[in-house]
Design a protein that fits this description.
The structure is a single chain. Helices cover 30% and strands 31% of the residues. By secondary structure, it is an alpha/beta fold. Strands 1, 4, 5, 6, 7, 8, 9, 10 and 11 form a nine-stranded mixed beta sheet that branches. β4, α3 and β5 form a beta-alpha-beta unit.
C-alpha cells in the first residue's frame, strides 16, 4: 500500500494558514502556493538516487554525490496544478513539464480527459503529479490512470490539502502511488468542498469565479 506523508513543517503550516484566510488576495495566494510547493518538493524528493562522483574543489579533489536515478517530470492537473509548477522548477530546473486536463461528464459524472501532453520520455521519469486540492479523489485518480495508460509507472501525487475521502480513493485505485500533502482536513461537505479547506484553489489562484 502506498504511503501518505503529511507535512508538519512550521513554515508550511504558517503559509497555509494565510492561504486559508478568505481575505488573502490572488497575488499573495499565488506566491504562497509557489513557496509551499518548493518547500514540499524538498521532502518529496528525499529518496532520489545519487551516485558518487569526483570533483575538484579550489582546495583538492574529493568524492561527493550527485543525482543519478530517473530524471524528474512534473505533471500539473489543469488548471490549479499550474500554481505549483514554478516552485518545484526553482529547485529542479531540469525537470520536464507535462500537462493533463480533465472535466466531469454531466451525465455519467465520470472524469473525461480533454488534454494530455507528456514529455516524450515520460515513461523513463519519476513523475510528480500536482493538484492543490484532493477532495473526492476522482480527478487525481483519473489523471493517474490516464498517465499510466501511456506507459508511466513511477508516479507520486503532491497536494496542498486533502480530505480523507480523496486519500482513500487514490490509495484504493492506485496503491503504488505515494501521496504527499501539506494538510489532511476534516471531511467533504455536501457540495464536495474540503472542510475547512480554502475554497476553490483555481478561482483563488487566477482571480476567477
Amino acid at each position: 500500500m502506498s504511503k501518505v506523508v503529511i507535512f508538519d513543517h512550521p513554515l508550511i503550516q504558517h503559509k497555509l494558514s494565510i492561504m486559508r484566510d478568505k481575505k488573502t488576495g490572488c497575488k499573495d495566494f499565488r506566491e504562497l502556493l509557489d513557496e509551499i510547493a518548493m518547500l514540499m518538493v524538498y521532502e518529496v524528493t528525499r529518496d532520489l538516487q545519487t551516485e558518487e562522483v569526483e570533483v575538484e574543489t579550489p582546495i583538492c579533489t574529493t568524492k561527493t554525490k550527485m543525482l543519478a536515478g530517473k530524471p524528474i517530470g512534473i505533471i500539473p492537473i489543469l488548471r490549479a496544478g499550474l500554481g505549483m509548477v514554478d516552485g518545484i522548477l526553482s529547485l529542479i530546473p531540469n525537470a520536464k513539464v507535462g500537462h493533463i486536463g480533465l472535466y466531469r461528464d454531466p451525465e455519467t459524472l465520470n472524469p473525461v480527459e480533454y488534454y494530455c501532453k507528456l514529455p516524450e520520455d515520460a515513461e523513463h521519469r519519476e513523475l510528480i503529479v500536482l493538484d492543490p486540492m484532493l477532495a473526492t479523489g476522482g480527478s487525481a485518480s483519473a489523471a493517474i490512470t490516464f498517465i499510466k495508460q501511456r506507459g508511466c509507472n513511477n508516479i507520486r501525487l503532491v497536494n496542498l490539502i486533502a480530505a480523507p475521502e480523496g486519500i482513500e480513493r487514490v490509495r484504493a485505485e492506485h496503491p503504488d502511488v505515494d501521496i504527499y500533502v501539506a494538510a489532511l482536513d476534516e471531511k467533504l461537505n455536501e457540495h464536495g468542498y474540503i472542510v475547512p479547506g480554502l475554497g476553490d484553489a483555481g478561482d483563488r489562484l487566477f482571480g476567477t469565479k
